[in-house]
Amino acid sequence: MNTDWQPFDPKEIKIDVSQLSTLENRLAIEVPAPIVNKVLATNRKQGERAFGDEVLHGMLLKFCMESWTTKIDWRPLWQAVPVDGSAEPVLQVDHPFRFEIDVDHHPEIIWPEFRSLEIIRPVRVISDDLVAAEVREQCLVLGTSENLVSQFEVGDLIRAEIEMLGPKGQALAEAFKTEFMVPESGKQLNLAGLVFDDIFAALEERVVGDEISLVTTATSQFADTALVDQEIRVKLRIVGGIRRRPIAIEEVLEQYGTPNELIFKQQVRIALQAAADRGQSEIVAEQFLKSLLDQVKDQLRIPDRVIPHFKNAVIMRKRKELKAAGWTAEQIEQEFDSRREVIDVMALGHAHRHALINLLTSHLDAKVDEKDLEDWVAVTASKQGRRPEEVRAELNHPETLKAIVSTLMVSKITKTLLKKDRIVLTDMDADEWNRLKNSGDRQENGE
To answer: Alpha-carbon distance 175 to 81, whole Å?
Structure first.
């Protein structure tokens, strides 16, 4: 509770409760006239007001909104909403201050036995080949690069402009720019939800400025799911190329201050294992949440008033994705019009997830503290190659902070239950896990 401004003891608030539904109640909150008089008197300093009428009114309203739970022992899942027009516009001497809010009161959840949930733990063995590949990457990262106009080779970075045409020759989106690494001969390239066979051969003897015509089939990852398994024609124009030249391992050791190659490889192995462990923890946490949600979803109660918030969030996120993929404004709106029911289902799913996390947090008395956030900042900064203070600044955005806290909470709950042997994991090879996930046989990661 915010205690920056506490004009009186919150227990002096008067509250009348009326039931709106099995899920929501309306609270009539009143600050008695004698207390209002004290607030108004305190607001005056030597005949001048410390705060204007509107500011003081807003401060008192905010204080009551944050304090009412000290009077009634409820822990709502959703933010309480003031009833429009229920508050007096100004504070008056000898008049009580009244307003109304609508508050949800979720019933108790009957939790299943957590050990009964099916949760797979993908296990990644950090092999010598993986270590060697990372060492090669470090040599490339610290090496030099040159711009190319022709004679592209495996590993070169190609920058291209893509135009996609549907089965009837219609433009599927505005042309957009992308980049990719040239794969080995015979290897596939996944680009914008499309899989291209042997792109290496298509790039042979090409130069910057050339346009290549390709034909493929839309995968399940394609932005327009209505076109999955249909023929897509792609015009790929080469905009530029970059070739990275690695430095010798001895130069890498010198730059990192590492005594020898053996120690460097040990450091690389530790870093790769830490990254694999983090990824594994995230997958396990998402599986736990999804499996539990399947068990208790019917018990979750979502007020109608909160659904539009989640729906708007889905639309904003999807609009950003489609715009980045080159969709026109008209195409995006048509997509939303044709998928209203899907968006409604997604919004309800996000609301269920939010409700479950909050209820589970209360049930297990779990908390995300400052250390958890600092650890997240450190890991994120390391992964993205950014300064910690830059990452920490993102926590100042309320919506970003809420999303991060939600993710950390799920991870913390899962780790707590694992330590107490309250959930059971079945190990599976990470490559097999990825194969099953990508083929659609498994979706325990919640995507």
So the answer is: 44
- Long-range Cβ contacts of 2-7 (<8 Å, 24+ apart): 2/62, 2/63, 2/66, 5/59, 5/63, 6/63, 7/35, 7/38, 7/39, 7/42, 7/60, 7/63
CA distance linking residue 310 with residue 296, whole number of Å:
20
**Would strands 97-104 and 24-31 be described as parallel, antiparallel, or unpaired?**
antiparallel
**Structure-token pair, residue 214:** 């390709």
Coil, helix or strand for 29? strand
Question: Three-class SS of residue 151?
Answer: coil
Report DSSP state, residue 117: S
CB-count exposure of residue 283 (10 Å: 0-12, 13-18, 19+): buried
Token pair of 161 as six digits: 């402009």
Cα 188 → chain centroid:
29
| CA nearest to 325, candidates 160, 176, 190 | 176
Residue 52, CA distances (Å) to 25, 88, 342, 403 in order? 32, 15, 48, 36
**245 strand-pairing partners:** 144
Closest CA to 327 of 115, 166, 150: 166
More confident residue, 76 or 263: 263
What is the rounded distance in angstroms from the CA atom of residue 295 to the CA atom of residue 293? 5
SS3 (DSSP) at 339: coil
The answer to whether the CB of 267 falls within 8 A of the CB of 279 is no
Residue 140 has pLDDT above 60, yes or no: yes
Q: How many CA atoms lie within 13 A of 4 on its CB side?
A: 4
Closest Cα to residue 100, out of 153, 60, 61, 52?
61
Q: What is the DSSP annotation of 289-305?
A: HHHHHHHHGGG----GG
| pLDDT per position as a tens digit, 412-447 | 899 889 888 889 999 999 888 887 776 554 333 333
What distance in Å separates the CA atoms of residue 309 and residue 319, rounded to the nearest whole number?
15
Give the predicted TM-score (pTM) of the model: 0.71
pLDDT in tens, 21-61: 888 889 999 999 999 999 998 888 767 788 888 888 889 99
* CA dist., res. 424 & res. 418, Å (int): 7
221, pLDDT greater than 60: yes
CB–CB of 178/162 below 8 Å?
yes
Of 353, 354, 326, whose CA–CA distance to 234 is shortest?
Answer: 326
Give the contacts of 404 (CB within 8 A, at least 6 positions apart). 373, 376, 395
For residues 342 and 192, the model is more confident at 342
